[in-house]
């Protein structure tokens, strides 16, 4: 923090007056947005000085813009001649008094909106404050927020301000971006025919959440339950089980519900596990080594014993903090259900049922069991959810402040 002092001298004493200007940024809608939505920020400038009302402090300027930084693992990714935005391209001057939003950031800038100037030569009396509204649209083709093993995409709203004869200071507010593919042209989903006549003398009210409403309708259609999918799980010795999945497309925060049917199995299954995994696949031209093609991350795991079980089910929640599937020039993210079945190589004797209902029977399993593990992967689709719902799981703050 750098402070500015004014010196007032007279015959009796010399007094130093502290001057402080506080810049605060607030995201009123929350910290999660869909690509194509408008980000709104309220920027408040307040003079915290405690001096006479006759003194007026002046701010030279303040500007706001949206940046997306991309950081890659040098041991896994080898970027070719990738086009990136340098500090000189974003700001023509590299001095400490110019607005360079990616100053001090790691990686490369893959997205940078045009800077919006909030004000120039703002004068505030001690205790006085003034607020400014900033709005900008996240490009529909922007990459999503993502933190993987080989690459990271992070978004920040950057506010730059400068006092006279002082270096520029930056205020960064991180936020999350979700991407729903197919929303590049919203007009496809809009009704162009107007049902009611419009009055040319009245200002037509536009629905600010029109894109969000359309996106939620598209998501509801894509992830709706249509027909169950049946999968016969077999190995070289016969049938292990039948798996029923009610749909293959899910939103963040939904539960993946499936049913196992072992009643028709000819191979005894002792134990099974189902794990929700994401596959991060690096583009072939960006791989540092051939073996660095794909990496997997496990999120939720369901494990159960199933010997002598006819039917059982699994319920796997999709975390709200996860990143839906996407594809860029560098990486592709896909989702799958990873199954592991522990089957017995030898027949296991069944439980002998009692002759009468009032009689009981006890079954003792073998002390040693010769087993083998079978692996099966089932691809699924993970889509975004309502950004307002995703805000409940994020740890990003919606406000930040800095003192000039």
Automatic annotation (TrEMBL):
Q: Where is this region: Disordered?
A: 83-104
- Give the Low complexity compositional bias ranges: 88-98
Recorded superkingdom: Eukaryota
**Coiled coil spans:** none
Give one Pfam hit by family name. Rgp1
Alphabetized InterPro entries for the sequence: Arrestin-like_C, Rgp1
Name under which the protein is recorded: Retrograde Golgi transport protein RGP1-like protein
Q: Which organism is it from?
A: Magallana gigas
């Amino acid at each position: 923090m750098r402070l500015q002092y004014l010196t007032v001298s007279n015959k009796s004493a010399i007094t130093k007056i502290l001057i402080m200007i506080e810049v605060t940024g607030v995201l009123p809608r929350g910290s999660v947005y869909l690509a194509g939505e408008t980000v709104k920020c309220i920027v408040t400038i307040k003079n915290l000085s405690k001096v006479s009302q006759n003194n007026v402090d002046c701010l030279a300027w303040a500007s706001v813009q949206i940046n997306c930084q991309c950081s890659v693992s040098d041991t896994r990714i080898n970027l070719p001649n990738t086009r990136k935005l340098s500090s000189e391209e974003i700001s023509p001057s590299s001095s400490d008094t110019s607005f360079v939003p990616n100053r001090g950031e790691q990686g490369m800038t893959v997205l940078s909106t045009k800077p919006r100037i909030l004000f120039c030569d703002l004068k505030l009396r001690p205790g006085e404050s003034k607020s400014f509204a900033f709005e900008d649209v996240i490009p529909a083709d922007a990459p999503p927020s993502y933190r993987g093993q080989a690459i990271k995409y992070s978004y920040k709203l950057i506010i730059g301000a400068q006092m006279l004869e002082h270096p520029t200071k930056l205020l960064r507010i991180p936020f999350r971006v979700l991407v729903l593919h197919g929303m590049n042209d919203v007009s496809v989903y809009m009704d162009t025919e107007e049902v009611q006549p419009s009055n040319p003398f009245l200002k037509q009210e536009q629905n600010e959440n029109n894109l969000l409403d359309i996106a939620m309708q598209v998501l509801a259609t894509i992830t709706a339950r249509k027909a169950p999918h049946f999968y016969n799980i077999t190995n070289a010795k016969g049938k292990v089980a039948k798996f029923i999945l009610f749909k293959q497309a899910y939103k963040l925060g939904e539960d993946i519900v499936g049913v196992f049917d072992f009643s028709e199995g000819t191979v005894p299954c002792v134990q099974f596990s189902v794990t929700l995994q994401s596959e991060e696949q690096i583009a072939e031209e960006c791989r540092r080594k051939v073996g660095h093609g794909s990496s997997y991350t496990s999120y939720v795991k369901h494990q159960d014993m199933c010997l002598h079980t006819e039917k059982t089910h699994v319920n796997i929640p999709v975390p709200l903090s996860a990143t839906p599937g996407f594809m860029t020039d560098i990486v592709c993210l896909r989702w799958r259900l990873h199954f592991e079945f522990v089957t017995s190589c030898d027949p296991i004797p069944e439980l002998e049922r009692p002759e009468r209902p009032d009689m009981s029977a006890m079954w003792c399993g073998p002390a040693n069991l010769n087993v083998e593990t079978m692996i099966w992967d089932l691809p699924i689709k993970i889509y975004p959810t309502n950004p307002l719902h995703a805000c409940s799981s994020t740890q990003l703050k919606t406000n930040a402040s800095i003192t000039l």
